[in-house]
Amino acid sequence: MCYLIRGFIFAFGRPSSLHLLCDIRIFNIMSPHIRAGEILADAFLHYPLMLHAFEGFTELERHRRLLQLYTRCASAASMYGGVVMNDTNDGALIWLPGSSFPLSLPQEIRSGMGLIPFTVGPRPTLRLVRHDGTSEGWVRQHAGDKMGYIWCLGVAASQRGRGLSRILIDRAIEQMRAQGMDTFWLKTEDPKNVEIYKKQGFELVNHMIVPSSGIPSWAMRRTI
Fold first, then answer.
1. pLDDT digits (tens, 9 = 90+) for 84-116
2. pTM for the predicted model, two decimal places
3. Of 9, 70, 93, 116, which sees the most CB atoms within 10 A?
4. Range of 178's domain?
């Protein structure tokens, strides 16, 4: 979530902010971003961090809120980074350049990310913010200026195991390299993904247990 806490505080900490956020009509989510949101919501439905963030929610409600979350993340990525999908729209990857990682408060508002506390809920939002503020904060602290960040990657369940993640990552890195980035970072909370990403050229740089969630997080880096 980058540092969405700033948008969260902005939304809940000032009397006029709700009116301001509700009046925002700047972002216009096109159908590819909606499809990317659908793919990511499905892919992260049983992800450890999301089970923690949405503790006590039914699977159906968790999926509904994840759809809200990832559709807005895809909107933000389309404005400030990139949204990559395969030819049959079965996989999606969203990325941000180092210059927009983490997103600034104005960027969060313009892209619709500032509405996440209202559409996803305050408690899940706070849990995500506290966790990612630590795990993504570590990446930001240790990454250089020419870094690109693979924000989220998901593949439809029926297409997993067919190499789509490699295709998406290669396309994303190609886009980032074209913009002058030479080091590419990601983090994962699923231990199975660590070996998958190692096979795609990423090295494990850091492993931590995030205090706020108790969930392990792995930071990985690939240099071209």
1. 999 999 999 999 999 999 999 999 999 999 999
2. 0.87
3. 93
4. 5-223
